Amino acid sequence: MKRKLLESLRRIRWLIRKEFIQIVRNRQNFAMLLVAPVIQLVIFGSASRLDVQNVSTVIVDLDRSPMSREVAEAFSRSGYFKIVAHLNSYDSVDSLLERNQATMAILIPPDFEQRIQGRRKAEVGILVDGVDTVTAGTVSGYAQAILLRFSNDIMASRINSMQGLLYDSTSPRLIVPGFTDASRAWFNPNLNSKDFFVPGVVVLILLALSIVLTSAVIVREREIGTIEQLMVAPISRLELILGKTIPCFLIEIVTLLIVTPLALLIYDVPLRGSLWFFFGSFLLFLITASAIGMTISAFCSTQQQAVLTSFMFLQPSILLSGYAFPIENMPWVIQYVTYLNPVRYFITIVRGVFLKGSGWDVLWPQLLPIFVMAVVYIACASALFKRRID
């Protein structure tokens, strides 16, 4: 028994060596396997932001009073808005919004200060480009918060100017009950969207690499005509699958060890959880992704077909993972579909480890479905491979 195991390991070792020679032989492709994930991390990590800053804003101030200028300065000082133009009429706003020269417009009526001084309600118009609904909602919320703070400052100033309603000392003062919020965001105090997106970017880079790389291993042998030679060789089906998958798996591990420290260094993303749990769970996820790639490879006949099938799997996996769009906001039918997506569970694991410092005791319900899917896909790859051989 021991001798058979050693012989099996020796055959797998030679298959691994053969696969590495094929991968390294094309130096350009081998370099891209290591360089492309780094480039993707820099580009996707920088682009995946929901933070709103320097929103191009135009102001239509028909009042031209000191108070209306204070409103414009409040928006300019906030850091969220960049004043790009001061207009003299409401009609000129539409063309700027249509040409994407402005994202928001502030409309101050001609009787703005007069109504406030007269103890009447004054309205400030806020027009937001609603094409991008996420940005529009955030921008609208920031604008409303600035106007609310401006309104509260006016009310506080008026209260301080009132005298004589309550005397408890030689200096008359008005006692008015009030409250302030003491809200605090846990795990991401500054609400940085990069801390939310960058861990997911690492997952998606490794997912794409593992599936695309693994899906071509068997198909490549079939295309160049060497699959028949492997069939007549004294190796088992399991040995062939392991010999083809392990080199890809090792390349994925090297990429993981490169991309993760770079993500921490470049984007200053916190990693509060256990490194051992992080890498251990990531290895399980890579096994699952590689098994999916092997299933695709056993199903397809050409490398082009394998690549296209891989992207057909990757696109819905990313969209239904919760990486960018909350699963809770999806239709209930789609929410049930996401339970079949391993990326859904691992995105939760990675963000929990990075931001919350969670470990096995909290995240094991997310690991269990990934393990089950790994077993299922390995069995499917083996069964499909056996059927194609027969």
Strand content: 5-15%
Largest β sheet strand count, sense and barrel closure: 4 strands, mixed
Domain tally: 2
pLDDT below 50 for ≥5 consecutive residues: which ranges? Answer: 164-169
Annotation field: number of helices: 15
The beta-strand count equals 4
Principal-axis shape = elongated
Strand order of the largest sheet: 2-1-3-4
Which helices and strands occur, and which strands form pairs?
Layout: H1 2-25, H2 27-47, E1 55-61, H3 66-77, E2 81-87, H4 93-98, E3 104-108, H5 112-117, E4 125-128, H6 133-161, H7 193-215, H8 217-224, H9 227-232, H10 237-267, H11 275-299, H12 303-319, H13 332-337, H14 342-356, H15 360-389
Parallel strand pairs: 1-2, 1-3
Antiparallel strand pairs: 3-4
Helix pairs in contact: 1-10, 2-7, 2-10, 7-10, 7-11, 7-12, 7-14, 10-11, 11-12, 11-14, 11-15, 14-15
Structure description:
This protein is mostly helical and 390 residues long. It folds into two domains: 246 residues, no CATH class; 107 residues, 3-Layer(aba) Sandwich (abc type-2 transporter like fold), CATH 3.40.1710. The protein has a four-stranded mixed sheet, with helices on one face. Strand 1, helix 3 and strand 2 form a beta-alpha-beta unit. Helix 7 runs antiparallel to helix 12 and helix 7 packs across helix 14. The protein is elongated and about 95 Å long. 31% of the residues are buried.
